[in-house]
Amino acid sequence: MFEDKWYTASGSERWRQPGKIGTLELPHRLLMGSMHLGLEASSEHLPRLIAFYVERVRGQAALIITGGVAVSREGSSHRMFCLLEEEHAAMLQKLAGAVHEAGGRIAMQLFHSGRYAHSAETGEAAVAPSPVASRLTGEMPRELSVEDILHLVGRYAAAAVKARQLGYDAIEIMGSEGYLLNQFLSPLTNHREDDYGGSAEKRRKFPLDVVKGIRAAVGSDFPIIFRMSGVDLMAGSTTLEETYDLAVALEEAGVDALNIGVGWHESTVPTVAAVVPRAAFSPIVAAIRQHVQVPVIAANRMNVPEAFQPLFESGQVDFVAAARPWLADAEFGRKVLEGRRSQMNVCIACNQSCLDHTLVRPLIPASCLVNPRAGFEAERPLSKADVALRVAVLGGGPAGLEAARVAALRGHAVTLFEAAAELGGQFRYAARIPDKEEFYETLRYYRVMLAELGVDVRLETEPTAADLQGFQSILVATGVRPHIPDLPGTELPHVRTYVDILTQGFADAQEIVLVGAGGIACDVAKYITERVRPNAAVNQFLTEIGAPLTSVHRPNVTMVARSKRVASGVGRTTRWIVRSELTASGVRILTECRPVEIVPGGLRVQGQGVTEATLIGADLVVLCTGQRPQQAVLQELGDDPRVLCIGGARDSAGLTAARAIREGFDAAYRLGQETAEDGQAV
Ligand code: SF4
Asked: What pLDDT digit, counting tens, does each position of 340-362 carry?
């Protein structure tokens, strides 16, 4: 979808131009937004955190904004820096020093969770403007007294002073996404009747007092960014007019820039997932900018230059603070500035190795599905291998593509054999799912990088053992094939696999039953139910020209799940979106329902919710029953010591693209490294 529309930089774009936030001079307009990596507050992980930031400085982040740094313990979170801890302050100082040494600039984000804090993690009760239970934690927070509020104003000011002492170039005050300051602003969570609640003006008092307190403490020359909520996406919360008033009041209170956040963690509206169009929330940013003179910063789904190019050209934003795109590509800024669009490893908004890691407990440090080196820069420098080898990679799916790229990057001579006529493997199927088109970006990235790195790509080629004789290492990444369950009737003509549907469509089938309810079945259900719908742009065009909007009959889709769970295997941050989409599109879901037999005209099932051996009528039965490794080539190669099997070809159980790519990276990275024990290349 995006493959052939490469953006090329002309050299005159506004994001190339130097900018200023208060007294802080920045070389261009591409910032790295705040991200909690799960590497914070740990002396063991500090080298990894430093390496991660330093590499983004080298990748041309004009300013790095740290993950949240708690101003007090009760507002903290697991693995979060807290400025009350001297050990943490020392680590933060080293971090700032390393960023400066690399030639970068760094702002500290001052953070307080408020009622989003987990008392089990902070050791203290969560606090909030009013005792309104948090849907995120299930906990009832303690209402802050006026004395508590005044104390917190002082804490913020002391934290800002400390940030400056530790060498930070600026601070960002976290006031969005439903955290403490945002909680004071919203009538949903602020029920106070004193000076800090009631009217919008009173609800603004605490955040404004925080800004004024900080400004008074740090002086007029220390840059203050305020991350404010452009829209809470919570019914009954702050109005747009109140948001504009807040922006004006923040400017008057002394902030130097406004960074616009969107949505609360309790909101049921997606804000960062792939279903959100690129730059979807930019009109809110642009509207706020019309009310203030200070620079305004946009974030959320700004993963490619085309997303923010029009915003800069039309003067709607002053800076962009993408976050996840810097995880996906440490050189995000450099590649945008140099117009190297085709080389960009684009964030596909999957959340699978970033937010799905840092929001689970126990927390897993963030990395990136399309860039498994993210977070491991210290351990995995991009140097040449000790010994250059001739490497064959069998299979051009996610694991094979990454293995070929990394092996070539490390100096090996790489040949990639792919049996199909195109590269991509499972990625090619995933990219066909509505709202997963960003996977085409990943395919484009690999195609471009393999060509640049000189990988010899041989399509429609399945090498024999004889063909592989000249290689010193063979990585088998032949992927997976659909699993055909042991179920009577799978040979009938109306039975298809998920691959058949995603490659050949479903013709005019009207009653479709999906066997299985995991991530693949959910994808296939979405593919079928959305395939027959004209897209929004087409609908808008037809409306504008006055053409009648006809409706097309959609097939009825039934999903048969053996267990109670639907969409298992889909990450925590997107599972709820998948489930709500299934409901909205009218997919019938039968849980705890066991397929017994496929018969002409349908599928017989047994289980809860249906009587014994009930027939579900269907003119198409789709097997979404998992995958099995494709290992035929291994039988031919036997126990050849040159062979290493990776990705789905090694193990298909619980296979994810993240695991496949990581295995490709790890296997290729180890090639040609001399071991300490015997000095032999591996
Ligand atoms: Fe983006 Fe997915 Fe990587 Fe997160 S894991 S940074 S969402 S591509």
From this structure: 999 999 999 999 999 999 988 88
